[in-house]
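Intended use. Records such as the Lactase-phlorizin hydrolase-like entry shown here are meant for training and evaluating sequence-to-structure methods. They are not intended to support clinical decisions.
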Amino acid sequence: MTRFRKTSPFQTYTRDYIHFVTILVFLVSFNAQTVSAQGAGGYVYKQFQNPVRDRLIHGLFSSNFTWGVATSAYQIEGAWNEDQRGETIWDTFSHEPGRIVDNANGDIACNSYHKIDEDVALLKELQVKHYRFSIAWSRILPDGTLNKINQAGIVYYRRLINALVEAEIEPVVTLFHWDLPQALQDIGGWSNEILTVYFKNYAELCFLEYGDWVKRWITFNEPSIFAKAGHEHGVHAPGLKHQGTTVYRVAHTIIKAHAKVWHTYDNKYRASQKGQVGITLVSSWAQPSTKWQVDIMAAERYLQFEFGWFAHPLMVNGDYPSVMKTQILEKSIGQGLSSSRLPSFTEEEKVLLRGTVDFLGVNYYTTKLISAWRSDAWPPGYEEDQDLKAWHDESWPKSGASWQKCVPWGFRLLLNWVKHEYGNPPIYVTETGVAEKLNDQDEPKLKDVWRVQYFVSHINELLKAYKLDGVNVQGFSAWTLMDNFEWQDGYSTRFGLYHVDFKSPARTRTAKSSAKKYNEIVTGNGFPVPVSKLRYIPQFKPDMAFGAAPRAPMVPVFHDNDEGIQPEFR
């Protein structure tokens, strides 16, 4: 239940935040089993050496935990005008001079359209259990509708899925990873609610063609980023800067489109195909900059605007978080409007929306410090609606991207917030990774120690969330398999486990150190206790007094704590 009250020195609205405060303090309430692993004393980053919070632990994930890597169609496929593929908003956007660093585009990218066998070989080398990739809507439906089904596109994804199945790698499919067919943008894009119908038709075609092999479907990847970057800030396709308006209409349509697809699968395909339909959401962790209540509530407000924007309608009550509705209505009235810039759902729509997530994909890349701040009434904007400031601590470990600092403990806190906010749903971490900046010579950085540190520290925080906090996490996907087209950064920013030589027509792939480390984590299913640390205590039969019958041998179970590996006999 949500409640509000006004708080001075400026007006803001608060909600019941007991669970949020609980998450903030839980890090000091447990006695973790810690070990030395990466770096001195079991720490990864010199900036983070809190003995309770930051030390690495040993432990394994469940036997059915699934490890994988993630990519997206526009970022790797290339072949932008081959085999009757239709144009996308990213083709249009990237072909406009000045939109992308170095005027780069995804016309060829990693050329994965022609390298199925090579890419699957990389997956086999990593020994992952699943591969998360996206289908390019316009490759199978060139204009986004059923007017024409492109068989060449259908066959391409069938070949990819068959190659994965033959390699015993599960295909995990994202239906929309930002590359909307340009023909649909020409009729208004996601601002036009007719797209809920077109998206349902496209998804149903995918279910029919691939549903016998694909058992996990993700409708949308990071819809908040797509809505904001493409329709509020104009730095992503389609490049619109409609402050405080279109961003909410786009999200509104996407939410309804997700639910329509979920119901279609549930009513027509679930019984025979036995799969699941989820959605992938992203947020930074919001760390209050002080212990003041106004900053704690500002951090909660940030999370509700970023994550709850989509999760609350689909997983709670079919409607937006109360704090969003209140904030945006108040701002809208202050701007002279008679109603909120945030669209509303009908009661019938609320019923259809809630409970339409079989699993939740969570993406995490960084943490931000948050403080309350009363923004001006004009101009309107998504960020302005939140009444807060968000920034990075400059002392935190850097990455190759200005928007990313490496903050492992924020990952764990975000997962715990999701657990408490949404009743501990099944979670798959569908992306996390770290950027590197291309140097002037375009030299491959194969010894990517910073990425090794990132994955060791963040996956270890995931282990803590799973083992110590009871977060229902069921899988992990590293972003990303290989260097690729990174949206407005083009090829100047790299996230790959494998280096791609974009100067070579062959687009040669070469493993980095992080690929080898990730393979080690995957094959170990986490962070097993090194054999060298186990002190073997032999089985024995103790002498039994008073003529008692001999008992079965006692088997030592080893536990790791600050005093070393300690046995417990059972």
